[in-house]
Design a protein that fits this description.
Elements (H helix, E strand, L loop, with lengths): L5 E8 L3 H16 L6 E5 L4 H7 L5 H9 L2 E6 L15 H10 L4 E7 L6 E3 L2 E3 L8 E7 L9 E6 L2 E7 L5 H18 L10 E6 L5 H14 L6 E6 H10 L6 E4 L1 H12 L9 E5 L4 E5 L16 H18 L2 H20 L13 H14 L3
Parallel strand pairs: 1-2, 1-3, 3-14, 7-12, 10-11, 10-12
Antiparallel strand pairs: 4-7, 4-13, 5-6, 8-9, 13-14
Helix pairs in contact: 1-11, 5-6, 7-8, 9-10, 10-11
Bound molecules: 3-isopropylmalic acid (IPM) and manganese (II) ion.
């Protein structure tokens, strides 16, 4: 038990990032009323727009604050047309930079469907999958793979002739993310909806790629230490069908960086869309949480996006602190958020445009905050 309060650093970033982070403050304020709230919040600017105005993605002091925080909440970074001289998105320092500098090797993306959430398919809003069949977590390797910064272009006579990205799979990188996935399956305990079996599915392309063969061998080696968790394998191409047709088969899914990036966006459709997809970037000493949707330029400044992904990210952040610090107060607050979210999703009272509703971002935040205030702590 750690009595000191936790230092949270919020990085609103670009586009819709500041709009959803504002709602996160609202929810934390509601939790803080009349109950233990062992946290303090600092907020720092940064991202693509900041780069455009200041010639740097953020201030060194902001980076230092984020790097020494107990947990970071990132809104979103990036803006079309604002790039670093090397072509990377401006603002990448806040997301890819922190993932690497803080060694946040597991990108944990829960995909759970709550009752009352609709699926938008061909412009129609309907319940397609049922909540009792969608409850899985994708664990994406977060520091290497195709995102390894060993890449570049060969320019000749002012023209790009060749561009190359190196996909590195290391023993250490594969081992620790696979172990994280197995431990997560044990911690979740409830297994896959289909048969309640604890299961870790290794998603790769080991029929073709050497890196994937090594990833799978590493998976097998680590799996031997977890006899209570079932082994399961899928090639990534086949997996994209199975996850849609049989989501109930999955408990925890582990994959390399780029494949995990793609399959987690795909899986978000099952949970109602990117408006619900939250992620935790977790390492041995640090963690950063974020809504996965990004800065969404098309919707920015309109107060229309769904803040639920950010609220689920906050819930993850509080659970992480509870576990890491052995402090039940955080877990209790995370439970309060989850209960409030489950209630407003079930009664449909906070449906934003992506759910066919007309509730605004701030309206949804007000609704969740008022449910938290109204419920017993
Ligand atoms: C994500 C995003 C990032 C990624 C981008 C913004 C760099 O797509 O968090 O999934 O590719 O990891
Ligand atoms: Mn992505």
């Amino acid at each position: 038990m750690n009595d000191a309060s936790a230092r949270l650093v919020f990085l609103p970033g670009d586009g819709t990032g500041p709009e959803v982070v504002r709602e996160a403050h609202k929810v934390l304020d509601a939790l803080a009323e009349g109950d233990a709230h062992p946290w303090s919040i600092e907020e720092y600017p940064g991202g693509a727009k900041y780069y455009q105005e200041h010639g740097k993605e953020w201030e060194p002091e902001s980076e230092a604050a984020a790097m020494s925080a107990d947990a970071v909440l990132l809104g979103a970074v990036g803006w079309p047309g604002i790039n670093l001289p090397n072509g990377d998105i401006a603002g990448a320092a806040l997301v890819l930079g922190l993932r690497r500098k803080l060694d946040l090797y597991a990108n944990v993306r829960p995909c759970r469907l709550y009752p009352g959430v609709l699926h938008r398919i061909s412009g129609e809003f309907r319940p397609v999958w049922s909540p009792d069949k969608v409850d899985l977590v994708i664990v994406r390797e977060n520091t290497e793979g195709l995102y390894t910064p060993v890449h570049g272009r060969l320019e000749r006579g002012g023209e790009t002739e060749v561009a190359v990205d190196t996909r590195l799979i290391t023993r250490k990188g594969a081992e620790r993310v696979v172990r994280y996935a197995f431990e997560l399956s044990q911690r979740r305990g409830r297994g896959a909806p289909e048969d309640k079996a604890r299961r870790v599915t290794c998603v790769d392309k080991s029929n073709v790629l050497a890196g994937c063969q090594f990833f799978r061998e590493t998976y097998d080696r680590v799996a031997a230490a977890f006899p209570d968790v079932a082994r399961d394998y899928a090639y990534v191409d086949a997996f994209t069908q199975w996850i849609i047709r049989n989501p109930e088969h999955y408990d925890v899914v582990v994959s390399s960086n780029m494949m995990g990036d793609i399959i987690s966006d795909l899986a978000s459709v099952l949970q109602g869309g990117m408006g619900f997809a939250a992620g935790g970037n977790i390492g041995d000493g640090h963690a950063m949480f974020e809504p996965v949707h990004g800065s969404s330029p098309k919707h920015a400044g309109k107060n229309v996006v769904n803040p639920m992904a950010t609220f689920f990210a906050l819930e993850m952040l509080l659970r992480y602190l509870g576990q890491r610090r052995g402090d039940a107060r955080f877990v209790r607050q995370a439970d309060r958020i989850e209960r409030a979210l489950a209630q407003v999703l079930a009664d449909g009272s906070a449906r934003t445009y992506d759910q066919g509703g007309t509730v605004t971002t701030s309206g949804a935040g007000d609704r969740v905050a008022s449910v938290i205030r109204g419920a017993a702590a």
